[in-house]
């Protein structure tokens, strides 16, 4: 499984997320800064609230068990 996890607490734009999306790699990201401008939960990636490792783990597991 290829996936990109971006668990920042603070972020400006998140260029690495854009690069992952351009490479068609599934993305899990914290809803911080400019990230929430282009990662939409369930559409262009999975979004979790920052600082919540349990939600981050759940989103990662969701990618693992439902890669579509």
Tell me about this structure.
By secondary structure, the chain is of the alpha/beta class. The protein has a single domain (4-65), classed as Glycogen Phosphorylase B (Rossmann fold). The chain is built from two helices and three strands. The chain has helices at 15-22, 53-65; strands at 4-6, 27-30, 46-48. The model has no long low-confidence stretch (mean pLDDT 90).
Defining traits:
68 residues; alpha/beta; Rossmann fold; 3-stranded parallel β-sheet; 3 strands; 15% strand
Radius of gyration using CA atoms only: 11 Å
CATH architecture label name? 3-Layer(aba) Sandwich
Number of helices: 2
Which whole number gives the mean pLDDT? 90
* Quaternary organisation: single chain
Strand-residue fraction?
Answer: 5-15%
Q: How would a textbook summarize the main sheet?
A: 3 strands, parallel
| Total beta-strand segments | 3
Distance between the termini: 11 Å
The general outline is globular
CATH topology title = Rossmann fold
Quick gist of this model?
The protein is α/β, with parallel strands linked by helices. It is built from two helices and three strands, in the order E-H-E-E-H.
Helix-strand blueprint:
Blueprint (H helix, E strand, L loop, with lengths): L3 E3 L8 H8 L4 E4 L15 E3 L4 H13 L3
Parallel strand pairs: 1-2, 2-3
């Amino acid at each position: 499984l290829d996936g990109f996890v971006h668990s920042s607490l603070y972020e400006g734009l998140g260029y690495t997320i854009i690069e992952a999306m351009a490479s068609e790699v599934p993305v899990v990201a914290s809803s911080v800064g400019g990230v929430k401008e282009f990662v939409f939960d369930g559409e262009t990636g999975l979004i979790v609230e920052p600082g919540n490792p349990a939600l981050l783990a759940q989103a990662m597991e969701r990618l693992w068990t439902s890669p579509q």
